[in-house]
Each structure stands twice: as C-alpha cells, then as structure tokens.
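Summary of Year 1 activities. Much of the first year was spent building the evaluation harness for sequence design. The harness presents a backbone, in tokenized form, and records the residue chosen at every position. We chose the following record to illustrate the format because it has been used consistently in internal testing since the harness was completed.
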C-alpha cells in the first residue's frame, strides 16, 4: 500500500516512522516532511520515505499530488488542513483519506461548538458561556472573580487561550481577544470557562464513526520552563503512561467522557473518523474536559507510537473503514518519555540554520529514537528550521529508566541556543 502523510513536525515523523515498520507499506510520501522523515526507510523494501515540498495547508497542490501518485491512504497530521476541509475535498475526488471531515473537525476548530456539545450531552467540563460582545463577557468573568480561561472561538494556531486570575486580568484578556483581535477574527466569539484546578492530562481515542478506543494516558508539559513556568508552547515534552488515574477511574472516564461523546455524535449525525484528543483536568470532582482536539497531539504521538504494538497502517485502515470494534489495539507495557529540544527564544522569535550535532551518536543507543520536528538538511548537515527542533524519545520497563535514557540522549545532542526542560515526567516520579 502507498501512503501519503501530511505535515512536517515531530508528530508526522513519528507517524512516518511507525508506518515505515508496517509490512503493508510499499511507498511512503510526506508533505512537506523534514530531515528526519527523509532519512526513514521502509521495512518492507528498504525504499526511502520521500519528502514532497508541498505545505500542509496547500490543499490544491496536495490534491493534485494525490491524484497523480494515487496513494491508497492519505494520513493528515495537523489541525489546520482538517479545519480547511481536506478530508471533504479528497473524498469528493474519491481519494481515501484518514481524519475527521470539516464538520467533525469542529470539535477543535470551534471552541463554542465543542463547549455547547459537551453541555448538550452531559460531558463533564468547566462551567462556561459563549459571548459575541465584550460587556456580557466581562460580567460573566466578574461572576467568576476573574478566575477563568478566555478562549477565542476559531483556530488560532495553538494559541488563543488566556488564563486569568483576577477581574482586571480577565477584563484585559477580553479586550485583547474581542476588541483588539489579538488572534484575528477567531476572537469575534469567545468561550469563557471557569478556572479549573488540578493536574492536566492528555487522552486520545481513535474513532471510526461508531466505535472509539481509548489509548493509555499521557501528559504534556506546555510551559516553556521547568516547574511549569514561562510561556505556553506547543508542548515541551510528554510521557506515557501517567500514574494519575486508576484502572477504575479510566473506565469511568471512558464512559462519562467518551461514551457520552460517541452517543452525542450519533445523535447529531457527526461521522468522526480520526483521533479525538481531549485535554482533561483531573479536578477534585473528577476528570473534566478543557478542550477537544481532533488530531494526534504533538508531542503525545511520539510517546504513543513508541508504545503501540499494533500495526499502524492496519489501525488507520480500521478507523477509515469502520472496523475498529474488531481491531486488537495492543500497547507495550513499557513507559516512554519524550524531551523536546527547542531553539533558543522559542516560543518567541528564534534563529534558524544552526547545525545539529550528535545525532549519529544517539542513533546507536537502543530503545531511543530522535523524532525531528523543525529540521532541514544543508549538504550533509542537519540544521535547525523551527521552534521545536527535536523530540528525543526513549522507552523502558520503568518510567524512571525511560526518563534517564531520554536525558542521556539529550546530553549528546548539541546546537547553538538549544533549550529543553529538565523536569519532563518528574511529576510522575517519587
Ligand atoms: P486549551 O487550548 O483550551 O487546552 O487551553 C490551553 C491551556 O490553557 C490548557 O492546556 C490549560 O493548561 C489551560 N486552560 C485552558 N482552560 C482552562 C481552564 N478552564 N482552567 C484552567 N486552565 C485552563
Ligand atoms: N500537545 C499539545 C497539542 O498537540 O495540542
């Protein structure tokens, strides 16, 4: 089978790496890919994965490429092409594609839709309301004593959420988003949620329109600096599993979150094929959903796919075809840890083009994989080309050992200005 993967970050490198191990995969393209993806080879025939210089949001060019090369399945990594309707477009042209259609992708592309859906179907979430004008938004925030999250409705490229602790802060946030349009038109409507206290975890479930299968838990580290300080980022590191939910609590979450979500989709005729990724706060009253994403998390994918024992090509096929109920989804009991190495300055402005050293040394380490995110090739060198550069991932029987190996690998890698958190997975260890 021929596969086309869309995207070029660490998540897509993990998808390509895992697909390359499948005996079904005979050809693999990635648009636009990165230097690490270009170095992958297929287990079946040793063919290289091929990077195609088309951006993940260039739908007309992606369509033309797929019509020409005829992949058996296109796999969409990022949220934006989903929100733009790439799945609807490909299906209209009779091309098989994995991911939610535009209507189903609204769980991520509209915070208002997602919040109201949760309320309609009794999915535990924060107390919240939606607003189109600032005055009533400020009144609602004042009712929460300003302890709230102000969320722009549309896709704001992973930004668009301001967490506030006082009425003055909430007023400023509402002005920024709704009046000054800090996140563009996405801010014409906002959701304001009460501030929830607790530990935040990531859940992922793969869905086929009728069945949803929950993955083990994982946890991202969204702030730039150790101890959850500094700015919000796309994610500075992950690990899986987390020790925070017992098996009983997981089963409960499966029913109260996923079961209700699935029945809601059925009632509203939403045909969701893809990954539902709820961001969940573990509050004193139990797990509550902060937001839904409609795709694999980045860098959650890096830890999930190193633990996945099932064939990824078969899993994605089952999600497209509606046969997940018969699919044997198997996970390694090993723990995995991913430490993101970022460019100095990220998530603010940063330099590019810095040579990355030490990768060949790390490639000799067992149970370790360096997923590339923002990298490019210049001659025979790998250079930095983005904010998040690498996701250094290791797995082992225990979380402590996986963490030690991941950091041993990080210590061998150097590039000018490299910055990473030293406390990934620390919360889960004694
Ligand atoms: P979101 O993109 O909606 O997940 O929000 C980004 C980040 O803001 C989350 O990962 C949380 O850390 C934080 N956040 C969002 N909503 C809330 C909330 N209601 N209470 C506390 N923190 C929140
Ligand atoms: N790990 C955060 C995200 O993928 O949105």
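For this record, the design step produced the sequence shown next.
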């Amino acid at each position: 089978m021929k596969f086309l993967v869309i995207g070029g970050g660490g998540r897509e490198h993990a998808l390509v790496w895992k697909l390359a191990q499948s005996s079904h995969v005979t050809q693999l393209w990635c648009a636009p890919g990165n230097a690490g993806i270009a170095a992958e080879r297929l287990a079946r025939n040793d063919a290289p994965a091929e990077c195609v210089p088309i951006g993940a949001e260039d739908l007309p060019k992606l369509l033309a490429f797929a019509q020409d090369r005829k992949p058996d399945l296109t796999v969409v990594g990022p949220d934006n092409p989903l929100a733009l309707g790439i799945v609807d477009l490909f299906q209209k042209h009779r091309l098989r594609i994995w991911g939610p259609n535009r209507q189903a992708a609204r769980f991520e592309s509209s915070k208002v839709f997602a919040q109201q859906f949760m309320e309609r179907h009794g999915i535990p979430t924060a107390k919240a309301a939606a607003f189109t004008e600032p005055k009533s938004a400020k009144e609602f925030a004042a009712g929460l004593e300003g302890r709230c999250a102000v969320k722009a409705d549309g896709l704001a490229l992973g930004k668009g959420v301001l967490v506030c602790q006082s009425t003055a802060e909430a007023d400023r946030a509402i002005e920024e988003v709704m009046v000054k349009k800090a996140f563009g038109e996405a801010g014409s409507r906002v959701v304001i949620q009460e501030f929830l206290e607790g530990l935040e975890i990531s859940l992922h479930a793969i869905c086929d329109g009728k069945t949803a299968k929950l993955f083990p838990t994982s946890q991202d580290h969204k702030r730039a600096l150790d101890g959850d300080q500094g700015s919000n980022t796309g994610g500075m590191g992950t690990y899986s599993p987390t020790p925070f939910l017992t098996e009983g609590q997981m089963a409960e979450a499966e029913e109260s979150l996923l079961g209700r979500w699935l029945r809601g989709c059925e009632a509203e005729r939403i045909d969701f094929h893809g990954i539902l990724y709820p961001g969940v706060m573990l509050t004193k009253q139990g797990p509550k959903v902060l937001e839904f994403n409609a795709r694999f998390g980045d860098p959650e994918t890096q830890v999930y796919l190193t633990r996945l024992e099932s064939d990824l090509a078969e899993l994605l096929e089952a999600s497209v075809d509606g046969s997940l109920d018969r699919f044997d989804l198997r996970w390694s009991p090993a723990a995995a840890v991913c430490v993101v190495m970022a460019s100095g300055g990220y998530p603010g402005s940063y330099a590019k083009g810095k040579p990355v050293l030490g990768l060949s040394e790390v490639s000799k380490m067992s149970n370790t994989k360096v997923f590339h995110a923002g990298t490019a090739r210049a001659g025979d060198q790998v250079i930095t080309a983005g904010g998040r550069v690498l996701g250094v991932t290791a797995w082992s029987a225990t979380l402590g050992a996986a963490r030690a190996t991941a950091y041993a690998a990080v210590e061998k890698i150097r590039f000018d200005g490299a910055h990473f958190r030293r406390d990934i997975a620390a919360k889960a260890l004694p």
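Residues 158, 220, 234-235, 293, 297-298, 300 surround glycine (ligand 2) (CB under 6 Å). Quantitative recovery figures across the full test set are reported in Table 2.
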